[in-house]
Amino acid sequence: MYTRLLTPKWLLLHLLVAVLFVATFFLGYWQLSKAEAGGGAVNWSYALQWPLYGFMGLWFYIRMLRIELHRDPDEGAPGNQVVLYQRPRIDTTGDPELAAYNAYLAELNERALGQGLSTKRSSNGR
Fold first, then answer.
1. Nearest of 72, 77, 102, 70 to residue 87 by alpha carbon
2. pLDDT tens per residue, range 74-93
3. From CA 68, how far away is CA 66, in angstroms rounded?
4. What local confidence, expressed as pLDDT, does residue 120 receive?
5. Could you give the CA distance from residue 25 to residue 46 in angstroms, rounded to a whole number?
6. Residue 39 to residues 24, 35, 45: CA-CA distances in angstroms?
7. Which of 1, 32, 49, 89 has the most C-beta neighbours closer than 10 Å?
8. Is 91:106 a contact under the CB 8 Å cutoff?
9. Sequential DSSP letters for 29-67
């Protein structure tokens, strides 16, 4: 179950999150030292915010891990389901130019799908 989290991609992500989590505490300590040296209210607020950013990022990462562990591993794999193609209906009511254009588009669509070749050959008598 946990083997999915031991692939090279996930190991690199684990390492990155750990480094960033520790870095937020160093940044918080740096802002705290600036605030104690007379930096002002902004430095005091950043001294509190950096560790909060670290815990928030860790919380999101743990949620992402839980989602990955509960995900079906074959969810994104292509299946053998048959997808039926439904031909578009051609609107022949109303504007004759629009109806002609829609018929032209339908013909192009059938040619692209390779379905129009057999009907054209039979209508031409070949």
1. 102
2. 776 666 666 666 666 666 67
3. 5
4. 47
5. 11
6. 19, 4, 11
7. 32
8. no
9. HHHHHHIIIII-HHHHHHHHHHHHHHHHHHHHHHHHHHH
Interatomic CA distance for residues 37 and 124, integer angstroms:
91
Nearest residue to 23 via CA among 56, 51, 44 = 51
H or E element at residue 103: helix 96-113
Residue pair 47/31 in contact (Cβ under 8 Å)? The answer is: yes
For 53, the token pair is 């950013």
Name the token pair of 101.
């254009």
Q: What contacts 24+ positions apart, CB below 8 Å, involve 43-48?
A: none
Q: What is the pLDDT of residue 87?
A: 66
